[in-house]
Design brief:
Elements (H helix, E strand, L loop, with lengths): L15 H20 L4 H26 L3 H29 L1 H28 L3
Length: 129
Amino acid sequence: MRAGLPATPRPEPGHLLPALAGSIVILFALPLFLILDWNTTAWALAAVLWLAIHALDFVLRRARKDTGNLAASGMQAFGLLFKTLGLLVVLFAVAASDAHLALAAALLYALAYTLELGLSMVAYFGGGR
């Protein structure tokens, strides 16, 4: 039985370039928000969430380097769950008071995240071969 592309083991790609690309999306969205007279608080919320999630990701990645393989897997799973729940809690709390603000922030965050995820997948499946 032949192993397909998804089953082929490969090293984890770097996270810096995809994260920077998502950051550029957030950064370039500010002039768009200003020109179109959209709520800049939504942009600020998305930017703060983006920075907070990536700062937490950086801290967790540094902590994983000091642990064994099994502990690193547990830390990665906990970090993913904690980041996702934290993001959702903040967005739902904002949505309770201003749904349009939360929607705009969530859409901007999702756009930046989609670019980051796409570049990460290209690096993982297409890089180095």
